[in-house]
Amino acid sequence: MEYPITQDAGLEARDDRLVTDSARTDRPTPDVDVVVVGAGIAGLYLAYRLSRAGHRLRVFEAGDDLGGTWYWNRYPGARVDVPSIDYMYSFDPNWQRDWQWSEKYATQPEILRYLNHIADKHDLRRHITFSTRVRQAGWDDGASLWRVRTDGGDDVSARFVVMATGCLSMPKQAEVDGLESFTGEVYFTSRWPHDPVDFTGKRVAVIGTGSSGVQSIPVIAEEAREVVVFQRTPTFSIPARNGQVSPERLALFAANEADYRSAARMSPGGIPMERSITPTFSVSEAERQQRYERAWGIGELFEAINVYADVLSNPAANHEFAEFFRNKIRAIVDDPQTASDLCPTDYPVATKRPCLDTNYYATYNLPHVRLVNVRKHPIRQITETGIDTAHEAFTFDAIVFATGFDAVTGAITAVDITGRDDAALKDKWADGPQTYLGLTTAGFPNLFLITGPGSPSVLSNMAVSIEQHVDWVLDCLGHLRAHGFAAIEPTAMAEAGWTQHVNDCADITLFPAANSWYMGANVPGKPRVFLPYPAGVDFYRATCDEVVARDYLGFKLSGPEGSMCNDGLVRRLQPDVEMILIQMAAMNLPTLDSMPVDEARAFYAQMSTTRPPGPDVGEIVDGVLPGATGDLAYRLYRPPTPGPHPIVVFFHGGGWVVGDAVSDDPLCRDLCVRSDAIVISADYRHAPEHRFPAAVDDAMAAVRWVADNAEALGGMPGRLAVCGWSAGGNLAAVVSRLTRDAGGPHIVGQVLLTPPTDGDLTRASYVENADGYGLTTALAQWCYDHYIDPADRRDPRFAPLCAGDLSGLPPAIVVTAEFDPLRDEGKAYAAALDAAGVPVEHVRARGHTHQSLTMVDVALSGAPVRARIANALRGFFLPTRTPETAA
Ligand SMILES: Cc1cc2nc3c(=O)[nH]c(=O)nc-3n(C[C@H](O)[C@H](O)[C@H](O)COP(=O)(O)OP(=O)(O)OC[C@H]3O[C@@H](n4cnc5c(N)ncnc54)[C@H](O)[C@@H]3O)c2cc1C
Q1: Which numbered atom of ligand 1 lies nearest the CA of 69?
Q2: Would strands 57-60 and 812-819 be described as parallel, antiparallel, or unpaired?
Q3: Is 182 exposed, middle or buried (0-12, 13-18, 19+ CB in 10 A)?
Q4: Cα angle at 563 between 560 and 568, to 5 degrees?
Q5: How far apart are CA 584 and CA 601, in angstroms?
Q6: What is the pTM of this model?
Q7: Which has more confidence, 887 or 433?
Q8: What mean pLDDT is reported for the chain?
Q9: Pocket perturbation via mutation, ligand 1, pick of 154, 357, 447, 462 by most ligand atoms within 8 A of CB
Q10: What's the mean pLDDT in 370-377?
Q11: Which of 144, 225, 470, 727 has a 20 to 30 A CA-CA distance from 624?
Q12: Secondary structure of residue 171 in the 3-state scheme
């Protein structure tokens, strides 16, 4: 049989296709094609799609009936926290004929009725075996199938297993001693009885103030004689402002349902909404407060989180928004101490899922409701009659545990899953889950995880995310079937790349700053790893689609007669850098090399006006210094700390053609603050009016002048480093060598940020990164041609890499960016310095481009690289490196 091979491998892809596998022709036929574990929203949709696609299937559900979350969580006040109209299936387009939502936010009973209605309407129950827990699933490599065992004695073989076990379905164990001794009633919000619970006249303890606590406390307080809430971590919550689904919205929706659903699929959170691109501090305080009030007034979670683009990335922006919430809490709650205890202060707002509530904070104004802050008054134990804290003994008739879940991974690892070579999934994930796309995991062929770790899951409207995953799986099964493959499994490379990408996405947000269940922090011993995918439903869906379009990039597909693998990484750029490139591409801007030089300079200057300013420094002084043939502008950035300070002479980027002393302003501010050094950005004459070596002569003049005037400038004589980006990096390298040869001024260190070092356009990086990453090979060539004659390009004043002797040069930090045409010459220069015995730190900025490291407060992933540069500078300036001690 021939497999249709059509797709090119990715840049770093390894092509490993059509490996004949003749040993596997007599495979047993499995009992079913697919075993689905779980009959919640995901399991039901799987049953619908699989049965209609002709797959033989069995669904096992531990509960006595369907509904998953909405079957188990029957606590008083349980509701959805995204509008009902968004939290529903989209595969049932005629739904309005036989269903209506009665409220903006439906209650648990209504959602459960809806799911039963869908199951009945599409005849899904017949596929489900209830009251049956899957205990074990083992991959039989010889037979190429799964063997699934349940606690009901079923032993079923299946080609595929789909874990639809839910992100929030494995309740967390209660972490208090003495529960068994309590003689009153005990309830868990996640396992609430089916018969109504009557709290009338009772003294009730509620432990936990996450979403379930916030929803249930006001309702319990309506009945109970006394309610004491034991809170460890306070929650940010906004009023739901529940009510009828607005008729206008319904009408709009009915007219445009397909558009509406498609907008939801391409939105950041799974609800139609434009992603905010406005940074918080780009608008006035009055405007910000109005915007916050509007978010508070609308009562929609995703709207609230989306107020400004940087709420989840900029600590100052987040702090201001959090303070708005805290002020609301203080305004609602009468007792100042209770209000203070209810105000979250030790994690950024929205880094734990905020809640939607009805009268939550106001409930604490009721005379029979009391809050106990267990951080101050820890629970010692549960007793026969109630709860003892370190300071007080409470008596209760009932205790309600609203203590959450072993989220995202708990229900998956609770099943004994073994893959290839009997490897246990639990062991593989001991240090945190590793998946490809949150859908699959290497070593476990034909295993799919619906809303698994590494997918948007709990950060999104899960109805949308579930449908997307199920659709992807069904398309995949269809593809395998159509092309004669029996198994699919991600490669180790693809999985490692995705795990890295998820971490990269999380690292540019404030999420890791919270001890949240998103981080696994609520379960003792659980590895601290960010579990969901935070870049959004829209980017995520595009990635999954791209993987398919690139011939299942990163997967190995195999069958009785062969296999194919298009290995590679689907996301290699840093996530923020990728977003910037996408936005830039959408703007369709002209390229510098397509313009006359004057226009290019004006355009470059214009582009600089739209960026964030960078951090505040102590002082900025603009002046002129004597260049080689006349005055040159400089800008001095002084740190806010008391001086004198060491000095960095900085040379700007711009290909020797564009830019000036202020064109790298945010970068210079950032370097100044991080390194606690004066940064003097010195201009130099530009090409083509002043070709090589005019810029070099000016750079030398600037360094000499700064060295001679260090004290007058507020600097420390002898503590002088040079730094430059791009063409400026080239000048910094050249100056370092010329000053060595001239016997001074003494330079203690050189910072070379993505520098050209010989302009050799035949290097691989010029070919690989020729286009699409900001600086193009064509633009680099335009710059070289303006600056220097081809005949001069081996002159070490242009090509420091061609200088014969690099020994004795100042210690260096050389930064190269992965997606930069100049990458390989920076790399070669770092190696040459090292070979010459120069102390050199080579930083390879993974996923970055030529410009992205300079984009202060825009490409946040560049900050750690700039921190390393600042560290290196601080090292250069240590007294042991000054001329006196060096001598
Ligand atoms: C109280 C609460 C409120 C929520 N509100 C929202 C909301 O407003 N918006 C939102 O987007 N999301 C919300 N969620 C998240 C919610 O879990 C998802 O929206 C969605 O219901 C998940 O559906 P699912 O089918 O993936 O998983 P679940 O609904 O959790 O269903 C999984 C099923 O798998 C079964 N199962 C697990 N392991 C096994 C096994 N080994 N063998 C057999 N069966 C097994 C479980 O019994 C369960 O029935 C909420 C969650 C909770 C707990």
Answers
A1: 29
A2: unpaired
A3: buried
A4: 155
A5: 18
A6: 0.93
A7: 433
A8: 94
A9: 462
A10: 97
A11: 727
A12: strand
Q: What is the pLDDT of residue 444?
A: 98
pLDDT of residue 648: 98
pLDDT of residue 81: 94
Å from CA of 462 to ligand 1 middle: 9
pLDDT in tens, 21-74: 333 445 689 999 999 999 999 999 999 999 999 999 999 999 999 999 999 999
Distance CA 33, CA 38 (A): 16
Rounded Cα–Cα distance for residues 39 and 41 (Å): 7
pLDDT of 26: 58
Q: What is the DSSP letter of 374?
A: T
**How far is it, in rounded angstroms, from Cα 747 to Cα 310?**
39
Residue among 330, 305, 301 at smallest CA distance from 317? 305
Are 635 and 620 in contact by the 8 Å Cβ rule? The answer is: yes
Number of CB atoms found within 10 A of residue 232's CB: 16
DSSP 8-state symbol, 879 = G
Neighbouring-strand partners of residue 379: 389
Amino acid at position 649, single letter: V
Reported confidence tier of residue 881, pLDDT bands at 50, 70, 90:
low
44, 69, 130, best to mutate for ligand 1 pocket (most atoms within 8 Å of CB): 69
Mutational test site, ligand 1, from 169, 192, 439, max ligand atoms within 8 Å of CB: 169
**Cis link prior to 688 (omega < 30° from 0)?**
yes
Q: Which residues line ligand 1 (CB under 6 A)?
A: 37-43, 60-63, 68-69, 71, 73, 78, 80-82, 87, 133-134, 164-169, 212, 411, 415, 450-451, 461-462, 466
CA of 217 to the centre of ligand 1 (A): 22
b/e sequence 654-691, b meaning 16+ C-beta within 10 Å: bbbbbbbbbbbbbbbbbbbbbbbbbbbbbbbbbbeebb
Tokens 């070379």 correspond to what residue?
A: 752
- Closest C-alpha among 216, 212, 214, 209 to residue 232: 209
User: From the CA of 169, how far away is ligand 1's center (Å)?
Assistant: 5
* Tokens (6 digits) for 450: 């619906």
SS3 of residue 536 by DSSP: coil
